[in-house]
Amino acid sequence: FLDIDQGDVFIKGRRVNDVPAYKRDLGMVFQTYSLFPHMTVYENLDFGLSLRKVPEDEKKRRIQKALELVKMTGLEERYPRELSGGQRQRVAIARALVVQPKLLLLDEPLSNLDAKLRHELRIEIKRLQKEVGVTTIFVTHDQEEALSMSDRIVVMNKGKIEQVGTPTEIYAHPRTEFVFQFIGKSNQLNGRVKSLDSRMISVELSDGGQVLVEAENVMGSDRTCTVGDAVKLYIRPEKLMIQPVESPTSNYNSHTATIVQMNYLGSAWEIEVSLLGERMQVLHPSIEAGWTIGTEVMVGWNPSDMMIVKK
Predict the structure, then answer these.
(1) pLDDT, tens digit, 9 for 90 and up, residues 50-87
(2) Distance between CA atoms of residues 205 and 202, nearest Å
(3) What's residue 99's pLDDT?
């Protein structure tokens, strides 16, 4: 609904900068659903088809198929106020699909739903998208949502693209510090490059400890490091391995730490440790008997799991 400041927008090879929004053949699902409250479910789906002057028999066929897709058959005569949040969202999606758009736009469509329903509808929307076969752009600030639903992710920062890639590429191989911090949780250490070769970078930390990082894991526009560079190191909580302090470890990076906080999440434990002069989060499936706040443990990780960026 806003004029384009710069650049071009193409849909299936056609430049649409000067084409009114209602003529771009798009399906749109808003965060607030934006269903017509005075219309039934059937009438909401019929609205766009009537504007396009679709023949009556074809309208009925499309509406019935759309309702079957979103599992809302039998609720055609209900009004939006008589539906649950999840049902209203399904109607909004059906209304967008029934006009057979070239492109489907979803603007944070699940943000108003509770966690359980949000998870269910993620699966449902992905199924619908694959079944219908329409290219879909899904806008979200929920990182888990983006990772679980996407074929490709575009991470944007202040209007500029930071990285485009598959969910695995974005999460496991971020190109910039912003992407690493924005997608998922992270721990940070600070230090200076002590030595390096073509495979490994050795970093001396502020407390005197040393860690190894794979040389190919340098992030940022300048992906080179030299001895003496001040750097920041990042690693995911689930990449840290925690063991009893007396256990042998084969990790390149292995250091003694102290447990300072323990939170049970159901499927795992979130353990906060004091490690190398910093507080670090560890995500671990279980804990050893006797572990408590103040227990000394051994924390290790592989050089391939840590990312590095110059300050």
Answers:
(1) 999 999 999 999 999 999 988 899 999 999 999 998 89
(2) 10
(3) 92
- Identity (one letter) of the amino acid at 267? S
pLDDT tens column, 10-56: 998 999 999 988 888 899 998 888 899 999 999 999 999 999 999 99
H-type alpha helices, the chain:
41-51, 56-69, 85-97, 115-132, 143-149, 167-172, 177-182
What are the structure tokens assigned to 109, written together?
Answer: 């469509």
- What is the SS3 assignment for 171? helix
Q: Compute the average pLDDT of residues 2-16.
A: 88
Tokens of residue 107, six digits: 């603007």
pTM: predicted TM-score of the whole model, two decimal places? 0.80
Do residues 40 and 79 lie in contact, with contact meaning Cβ atoms separated by under 8 Å? yes
In the chain, beta strands by DSSP E? 10-11, 14-15, 26-29, 103-107, 135-139, 153-157, 160-165, 187-196, 200-205, 210-214, 230-235, 241-244, 253-264, 269-275, 278-284, 296-301, 307-310
- Pairing between strand 230-235 and 269-275? unpaired
Maximum CA pair distance of the chain?
77
Are the C-beta atoms of 47 and 39 separated by less than 8 Å? yes
Q: What does the pLDDT look like over 95-115, one tens digit per residue?
A: 999 999 999 999 988 887 888
Do the Cβ atoms of 98 and 48 come closer than 8 Å?
yes
